[in-house]
Write a structure and sequence with these properties.
Blueprint: H1 20-46, H2 49-55, H3 60-67, H4 70-89, H5 101-117, H6 120-131, H7 140-163, H8 173-193, H9 201-215
Helix pairs in contact: 1-2, 1-4, 1-6, 5-9, 6-8, 7-8
Length: 231
């Protein structure tokens, strides 16, 4: 009979996530998916743990075993959404130099297209962002931080592009970052209200092209990656 060698000081034994661990992970994932759909349909305030539990064949107590409270479930859903965005566009791994605006804008359009193909996250985010305007909403701090962080990151990327000679100097990049986010979110809200008849991607592409033609020093066109007519 073989025995496992004792763990060395400071060394932690690792366990494969099989059996009960894998089942727990699968259950958590199923609960998150159900919560996303419920929050997308009804928002956080009108959704109940009983509804979400029924969607996964569980009980409210079962949900609390995995997440502790409805508020923690909400924050776990929002974290899952943030993780998905980072995986799709690599937002946390972008370099601080050599900003390729055309490529970055194309990646954002790809994100929109993938969100439309799997609309639960986008519908949920649009609905919750409206609810969270109330300072007492449990996601208020999350959305306040989200928009502040995104505005800052967007403006910083534009400033880097200006320093590298890709954008015209002397513009108010903070204001333009706010404008970009207003267009980005506003179009998604309009799409959420009428997803079968509202074209989300083309209007966003049009705004990006107008931005590039107005502020990029080479007048690049997003679609063709060549100088736009008259540039």
């Amino acid at each position: 009979m073989t025995t496992k060698p004792p763990a060395q000081p400071g060394q932690k034994r690792t366990r494969r996530r099989t059996g009960s661990y894998a089942a727990a992970d699968a259950k958590r994932a199923a609960i998150l998916d159900a919560a996303i759909q419920r929050f997308a349909q009804l928002g956080y305030l009108r959704s109940s743990l009983a509804q979400i539990a029924a969607d996964v064949g569980s009980s409210p107590a079962g949900l609390l075993h995995h997440f502790g409270s409805k508020e923690r479930l909400l924050l776990a859903v929002l974290d899952a959404r943030s993780d998905r965005v980072v995986k799709l566009i690599g937002a946390d791994g972008r370099p601080d130099t050599d900003v390729d605006l055309v490529e970055e804008f194309r990646t954002l359009l790809l994100l929109l297209e993938r969100n439309i193909a799997q609309p639960g996250f986008m519908l949920m985010f649009s609905k919750l962002s409206v609810e969270a305007a109330d300072p007492d909403h449990p996601a208020h701090a999350f959305f306040t931080d989200h928009y502040q962080k995104n505005r800052t990151q967007t403006a910083d990327r534009l400033r880097v592009a200006e320093r590298e000679g890709r954008l015209r100097p002397g513009e108010n990049w903070d204001a333009l970052a706010r404008e970009f986010m207003a267009v980005w979110d506003g179009l998604q809200i309009q799409w959420a209200l009428d997803p079968d008849h509202f074209d989300l991607v083309d209007p966003m592409r049009g705004w990006i092209n107008r931005f590039l033609r107005a502020y990029a020093v080479d007048g690049l066109d997003l679609d063709a990656n060549t100088p736009a007519p008259g540039a």
